[in-house]
Design brief:
It contains ten helices and ten strands. With about 240 residues, the protein is α/β, with parallel strands linked by helices.
Length: about 240
């Protein structure tokens, strides 16, 4: 049994057509799992279904063996799930430290120690702690978004296109940070367009096509699968 799993998920938005069909995705603590596939394959939808942002017609979501299929997104966050959306994932008019404090809204404890842990993980944020986030580079803003998501000390971190719109150098840096987060025994589920780079740091991956599981395997297996290479990795 995996730590966090979406099992046989089928559903879409509102009364529209199904976007995911009998889709199964799971991740264990201390593991990075990537969800890959062409545009419109249902990657982000699968992740949002696991967070409770759309109603499933069938299937279930479990964390640590507990069925959370009927919980609201807010209550799923209380179960230890953090989500970093692709867009609008920081408060641009607030400082770095204020953004981190906003991430701790569920905590009643003293948060200074947690903020210091985030600064250890992302040293540039300590350096810029009093700077407005809107003045930071794209890569630095993504580090703020990651740091804020980690303020509740989640057991599951869900990332939707974490490297969208950043340069290759910044992408490598962000992936290095994601690997560091994994070492803290966090289960990381990531939707990513940069498939080769994502698989290179992933323990496992899923390739979705039209909302269905098409391929699954370790990062290396998928990188070296000729069908996956020709269809999704550019040869």
């Amino acid at each position: 049994m995996a730590y966090f799993e979406g099992i046989e998920m089928t559903g879409g938005y509102g009364n529209g057509p199904n976007i995911i069909n009998s889709c199964t995705v799971n991740v264990n603590r201390g593991e990075i799992v990537s969800i890959l596939g062409p545009n419109g394959a249902g990657k982000s939808t699968a992740m949002k279904a696991m967070l409770g942002l759309l109603n499933l017609k069938s299937g279930s979501i479990k964390i640590n063996g507990k069925d959370i299929s009927n919980l609201s997104p807010q209550d799923r966050v209380k179960e230890g799930i953090s989500f970093v959306p692709q867009n609008k994932n920081v408060f641009a008019g607030m400082t770095v430290e204020e953004n981190l404090e906003m991430g701790a809204f569920l905590l009643n404890d003293e948060i200074k120690d947690i903020i210091e842990e985030i600064y250890e993980l992302f040293p540039i944020l300590k350096e810029k702690q009093n700077q407005l986030v809107g003045e930071l580079s794209g890569g630095q803003r993504q580090q703020v978004a990651l740091g804020r998501a980690l303020m509740i000390k989640p057991t599951v971190l869900m990332l939707d296109e974490p490297t969208a719109g950043v340069s290759p150098i910044v992408m490598d840096e962000l992936f290095d940070h994601i690997v560091k987060v994994k070492r803290n025994d966090v289960a990381i589920l990531m939707v990513e367009q940069n498939a080769k780079q994502a698989l290179s740091i992933s323990d496992r991956g899923y390739v979705l096509v039209t909302g269905e599981n098409r391929y699954a395997g370790t990062g290396n297996e998928l990188l070296n699968d000729p069908r996956v290479r020709s269809s999704f990795l550019g040869g």
